[in-house]
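quick one before i forget lol
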Amino acid sequence: MLRTLLCSLLVLGVFAAFAQKKEDKKDNSALYNGLKFRSVGPALMSGRVADIAIHPENENIWYVAFGSGGVWKTKNSGTTWNPIFDGQKSYSIGCITLDPNNPDVVWVGTGENVGGRHIGFGDGIYKSEDGGASWKKKGLEKSEHLSKIIIDPRNSEKIIVASQGPLWSKGGQRGVYISIDGGESWERTLGDDEWVGATDLAIDPRDPDVIYAATWQRHRKVAAYMGGGPGTALHKSTDGGETWTKLTKGLPSGNLGKIGLAISPIDPDVLYAAIEQERRSGGFYRSDDRGASWKKMSDAISGGTGPHYYQEIWASPHQFDKVYFADNYMQVTEDGGKTFERMNETNKHVDNHAVAFKKSDENYVLVGCDGGLYQSFDNTKSWKFISNLPTTQFYKIAIDDRKPFYNIYGGTQDNNTQGGPSQTDNVHGIRNSDWFIALFGDGHQPATEPGNPNVVYAQWQQGNLVRVDMETGEMMYIQPQADVDEKRDRFNWDAPILVSPHKPSRIYHASQRVWKSEDRGATWEPISGDLTNQKERIDTKFYGEKQSWDNAWDIYAMSNFSNITSLSESPQQEGLLYAGTDDGILQVTENGGESWRKINVEELPGVPKEAFVNDIKADLHDANTVFVSLDNHKNGDYKPYLYVSKDKGKSWRSLSEDLPENHLVWRLVQDHEDKNLLFIGTEFGVFFSQDYGKNWTKLKGGMPTIAVRDLAIHKEENDLVAGTFGRSIYILDDYSALRDAKVEETKAL
């Protein structure tokens, strides 16, 4: 009865809206807001924290900015939280600052402030005058990655901002920007129009006209990463940021990488700088004379994923020369950088990105990392995890057919492969204790076996595949291996795993070639040769030209290159397989791999050369039809590229004309009953189409602005499960009403 009523209401609403002009159709999404996504967590482990601000007058009030998860506020030291930025157009946050003259005025810089492979982009700077209850955008829309905001303590109308600028391309708004009218207008005083942005700022608390800035020249591509260049340097201004002098005495020369900068709050004559040099080398520097000269104190440098991912520093307000240095395992010095020790990370997630202190308590430290938020009351000797922030970053998800409630599995950024129930009969709802770790490490694409929920496939990065028996807990490492006379296979950071729809024990995995196993991974055979372009990553152009090896390369920060990123097998035709690569190729076999047909992605109408293949999906109902979503954002192009072929890839038609311009498409799934009903996960939410992709409508109910990296449909429950990159897992329960509520008679393209 309830479903019938819901369908009737949807049908009436949709037909009433049909009279609107086509250009107004995107606004029709409000008609479907009654279909609510349900958050199921987890908060077992949170996601990457970008910045923290503690209210100076009430230290129970914290603002926490997540690299991809918005901004959260607590008024009771983390007991409860409220996401306060969900209605804005950006979910990726780089920095947050409270106005020293009025801490209820909050400034947020969007776009994460690291150089990682998986970061989101922002759309400028925002201001709230009511503690985050409402927001106004204040410009810098083309900055993409804002890393620091400073408010002049004498004049709240003056704001100084460090903008890293676009990561994947030149241009945009990069460098140091100043506004003297509260953000109504901006002037760049440092940096350039192409590659040189700014990554850090420090202001002298005695004389706010004295400002220090770290510029940063960097460029990332699919194949490789250049972490520095001649534009990276330290600068000083004595006129409030209007003009700048480059600081050189005692500092290294050459092409520098990311620089972390801090000023001593106890003696502002003292400055600290963590400086990256060529290929992950570098050192820690100190100045005793307000930047006029510098001394190298040690060779300390951030490690782990690389300095581009860390490198920030924070000087303690309670102890002179004590500095926290962001790293996968935090480094701490108490002698100005001469010596460093690793901070105690016992019972704490590593990969640190943010530190905050309380003025009232010298033993208190609040640290944000890839696993969320931790606080220490005894100067880092022990840690308490803030376990109620559902901000996990999921790459890919899978669902099983367990009864009475199916499980959801998801591979996460730096937080393992996690599993948990879709529902519970517990009066308290789904709890952290209902979630579990299926596999350690960075999690990526999982898979389950139909009819046997005890078999789960999970992996850590670069194709390290494991079969897990969920009943016994047994784990078996099953990654296919090259023969002794072959080169090691190249698996993508997020390598595909596929269970055949024709035989549950048959699975496919892919490196630069496709592998098949008939016995759940116990044995393997390659069914293709190298299906990629076999490109050499160091031939990639950076800053518009090829670079010499004597530069700030960081190959270790990258996935393998020229490998397969997506696989699909037609449910209607056994042996009809599709493979897509990270270097612009689609491959088709109709005979189980005996022969392959190559399609360069630029053969598809309007697709750039070598676009990344995010997803291939063979049509559930028609053996001749296949969908593909392509991704060119790592060339600075955020357009959606979604296509369908009705002849097994011989010709293609775009399905993205009706999608917003910057909503790159991550995943497509098709309804198992209505072939015309499609869903896509995009950089900014979930869309559905009732007419085979001709028109798209956003599903907003209960879903914040967030990247939806993966979707799955539970056929028996008719549930749509969404894996988000920064807000954990959402479920749209029983979407079947969308099959019946039609705008008009659907016609397949």
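fyi The first helix runs from residue 2 to 17.
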